Amino acid sequence: MGHRILLIEDDAATAGYLAKGLGEEGFLVDSAGTGRDGLFHATDMGYDCIVLDRMLPGIDGMGVLSAMRAAGIETPVIILSALGSPEDRVKGLTGGADDYLVKPFAFAELLARVRLLIGRGGAKVPVATALRCDDLEMDLLARRVQRDGRTIELQPREFRLLEFLLRHAEQVVTRTMLLEGVWDYHFDPGSNVIDVHLSRLRRKVDDGHARPLLHTIRGVGYRLGVKP
Questions:
Q1: What is the pTM of this model?
Q2: What tens digit of pLDDT does each residue of 39-97 get?
Q3: Helix (H, G, I), strand (E, B) or coil at 159
Q4: On the chain, which terminus has fewer CB atoms closer than 10 Å, C or N?
């Protein structure tokens, strides 16, 4: 029998998309559209993981989480939220969540995190707060990027793009992966949006350094790493 997932999400389109994807991966998914309904389902205690949207009508996600933990419900919880500041992430994790995923996100990343939580039997998963490739470092909580000790100022989209590349360091990432993971597009709009942002990011990351880290793999995609 498949693992049971409780999805608490008020946006019908998002809930439908996630439920369909999780169902196709073999999970048994129940959905709730409000915090009150979600809390009622959560008391069932039979779920292996709860995917909880932070912004909900009535009782919000943090309220649901607080009530669950106060009632002794230790089911692992992944919070989904458009609020991605360090303070928001810390509040979610210290408030009892096991993981915190910022919207927009790639479905593949949510799936990996759900599987990781279930595979560890609900044990707390250490949440990475820093990413690194060679002398390039990203502090996710402080939202700070440095290379060789020097701070690099990035726009929010550039930060998200670099975060995605760092999470896939030494791997080739395709345009499709970037469109879904960074722009939340499930199709290629045919514009040069990726090329423009990568060009700006390359200047900020590589200019003035002997070792370029951001490489274009012609006809395939891009790669962040020491070797081209």
A1: 0.54
A2: 888 887 678 999 999 999 888 999 999 998 888 888 999 999 888 777 888 888 888 89
A3: helix
A4: N
193-206 vs 156-167: helix axis angle to the nearest 10? 80
Does the pLDDT value for residue 27 go beyond 80?
A: yes
10 in Cβ contact with 64 (< 8 Å):
no
Query: Which among 85, 2, 9, 3 has a CA at the least distance from the CA of 49?
Result: 3
Both tokens assigned to 210: 């002997």
pLDDT (tens digit per residue) in 195-208: 899 999 999 999 99
Q: Which of 54, 53, 52, 50 is nearest to 27 (CA)?
A: 50
Nearest alpha carbon to residue 133 among 161, 162, 166: 166
Q: Domains along the chain?
A: 4-119 (3.40.50.2300), 130-224 (1.10.10.10)
pLDDT, the chain, mean: 86
Residue 55 CA to residue 211 CA, distance in Å, equals 43
Q: How many CA atoms lie within 13 A of 44 on its CB side?
A: 14
What pairs with residue 86 in β-bridges? Answer: none
Q: What is the pLDDT of residues 107-140, one digit of tens each?
A: 888 998 999 888 765 444 445 578 899 999 998 8
Residue 125 half-sphere exposure toward CB, CA atoms < 13 A: 21
pLDDT at 198: 93
Q: Is 46 exposed, middle or buried (0-12, 13-18, 19+ CB in 10 A)?
A: exposed
203/182 Cα distance (integer angstroms):
19
